[in-house]
Every structure is written in structure tokens, then in C-alpha cells.
Amino acid sequence: MSPLPRCASLLSLIILAPGVLAAIEALRQEDTLPTAAAFALDDACHAGNENSETGSCDLSLRQLRSVLAVDSQQLDEPTKNVTLTGTLGAALPLGHPSASKVYPKYPGFSLFLVEEFDAPLHLDGDPIWTWSDGGLKEGQVRFVKEQIKFQDGKMKIEVRKNHGSQQSCSNAQSEDVPHKPLVSGEIRTRFNMFRYGRYEVRMKAPMVQPHNPNVDGNFVSTMFVFRDASFKHWREIDVEVTGRAPGAISTNILTADYQAKWKPSMQETDYPISYQHMNVRAEFHDYAFEWLPGVIRWYVDGKVVREKRNDRLEVPDKSAKIMMNLWIYHDAKPFVPFGGKHLDNDRFPMQCEYDWFRFYKWDGDHHYPLADMSSKSLTEDDMYLTSNNPCDGIPQIGEVLKNGQKLKPCKATCR
Questions:
Q1: Is residue 39 assigned to a domain?
Q2: Contact predicate 401/231, CB 8 Å
Q3: Is the pLDDT of residue 271 over 70?
Q4: 176 within domain boundaries
Q5: 229 part of a folded domain
Q6: Range with lowest mean pLDDT among 45-59, 105-119, 127-141, 389-403
Q7: What is the dihedral of CA 24, 27, 33, 38, to 10 degrees?
Q8: Which domain holds residue 293?
Q9: Is 183 inside a domain boundary?
Q10: For residue 201, what is the domain's CATH number?
Q11: Which intervals hold domain GH16 (predicted)?
Q12: What is the mean pLDDT of residues 257-267?
């Protein structure tokens, strides 16, 4: 059955532009309609996509699918009043690229997703990104949406003292999390939808004390891919900048199945590495990794710093979420084993900054992700315990492995 009759009221919100009728006719041929969360909306004309006759943009088929799939009650007021823009068959990249930038090209890769952070992301309504309500067992922070800030053309993740209260249940962790003394933020993609490609970020790590980038402390500032919490397929590829030294950078891979707690045998890392020529807290640097079948290569400022192939741990081959966060290790006296030894030097609030993020899809991966970000590309295994927070609308399907038992995940309430 065509979805169009069900969406008549919502269509009245759209200002019809050239190309809409063609898009509607194309949709009449569709048997099913994917959810809006699985698609990315273009929010500006890309260079060369303007309609020369009207001076405006045509509405893309991808955008129309997304709008039709959303119940009108779920749209916020700003969205209801915006004219959708784009062209039929709108080109990549998704996200929020800049029309004034010329992006680098890499043989064998195609630019798929760009975030410039020039404007705030609506983390409860963005079709690609959302927030985490998690809290690492070994960390002092609970992740909350409010600690992800967009200012001055940057995304800023801030750690501060926790003067509030959070629900004990964490959807991201799939279980109850005890109260943490600090709050911070973690931005992540909604689904395990990304796999082989090149992941790039330009970021600046925190100063543990204001205006002094040479003071060592404790923090872990990240860009990484991650899957399934800890209860089925734990897969992780990391770039981690830490408070151990002004040039301290760690690159990690973790893989395990049905392992609820971290063990040394599930990780391979180059930690500790310190680059004496750079201060990661005083200036921005570019960090990247290329994830391909059987090999991962990490880059700092465009130079390869590590290559990992299948050996003791195999390179992951399952899809994952993209994540960026900032956290502080627990106070394990007399020695803090990760993030830096000088935890007592930390002063809050503490903030890391992200200038941009880019994902280049490997041309050889024909499954993850689909160009329209459709959830039809996802398997039941991809959706296992995949909810990120109680407001993301994603069902929490799966079981939590704990003390040898399989338990139902806890349930948090959207506030």
C-alpha cells in the first residue's frame, strides 16, 4: 500500500518546489517506506544543484521519503516551518558539508559524510547523529546530551562536576550505572551502519588547567568506532588522546564476543606513544584511521603512525557506530592506569574541541552504509542492544550478559 494517503496532512507542510511531483510519482512505485531516522536531509543547496529557472532547489526523493515517514506530531516547530531543499538524486556527501570547501580525495575512497559543526546539530532529531546516556565502568563521568555544545564553528565536549541527577538506567550501557561525580558528553551515530573506510577528525584535546597546555592530568579524548556495548560483539577501533603528556596519543583495537568486562587479551594498543614535537592541547591536529578488510592504518597530521593486520586479534569485519567523547578515569589510588597519572591536577570544567569530522567510504564495501542511509541494510545482529538513549526511539532488543546470566536490559524514560 502506498504511504501517500497516510501522510496528506504532513505534505501540506511542504512548500512544493519543482521536482516534487516527480518525486511523489516515484514514491508511488515503492512497496515499503523506510523510517526517517535512516535518512539524511540536505539542508542547503550544494554548488551546482540550484534550479536555474526558479533560483531555488528541487526537493530530493530522499528528502521526500524522510518527510513522509515522520509522523507530524514528532516534528519540532522549526522543522515544520522549513522549506526542504536539494535535488532529485542529491549527491554525497551527507551531513553538513561546506559549499566553500574543497575536500581532499583518496584513491579507493569516496567522501560520504561530513560534519563542519558550523551550526548546532539537533541531537534528538538528526537522522544520523544522536547522544549517549552511558557511563563507563572504569570512568568517573556519566554522558548527558547537555555536555555536547556547538559554539564558534566547533563541537565542544565538556566535563564538569555532576551537580544534578541522572536516571540509573543507561540505554547505551543497557544496564544501571551508578552515580558518577562528573558529567560529560558522547556524540554517536544512531546505528551500527559504518564499516570499511577512512575516518578523519580535526580536534584539540583539553587543557587540564586553564591556559596551561603543559600541565599533565587525566583525560581520554576520542574519535572511534564501536559496536554492541559489552554483551555480544565487542568491536572497537580507537584514536585516543590522553592527559599523560602534551603529545600523548593512543591507537587501539579491541575485539571480543560475549565479554561483559574488559580483559587485556581482547586489546592491542601502541600505548604509550608520545610525540615530542607537538602539543595536542595547545593546537588542533588531524587524526585518522583507514579501516579495510584485514588491515587498519592510523594517521596523525597525514602521516602513518601505525599499521595493524590480522595476527593475534583479527581486524573487525562487523559494522559499527562512529563515536566521539571525553572522559576521566576512575580515581584508582595510588596509580591511575589509563588517561594519565596526575589525576589530582585536573580542574573542571575541562573541554575538548572538534573542528570537523569526515568519513570516506571504501569503494569496495557494497553493503555498509547504503547511500540513502536506509535501515534495510541492517541485520538483526546489527540492531542488537543498539539504543543510545531513551529518547532516540530505537527499540532495545537483546539480552545483557552479567555474571553468567542473560538478563533483560533496563528501561529508561525519555524526559
A1: no
A2: yes
A3: no
A4: yes
A5: yes
A6: 45-59
A7: -70
A8: 104-402
A9: yes
A10: 2.60.120.200
A11: 70-365
A12: 84
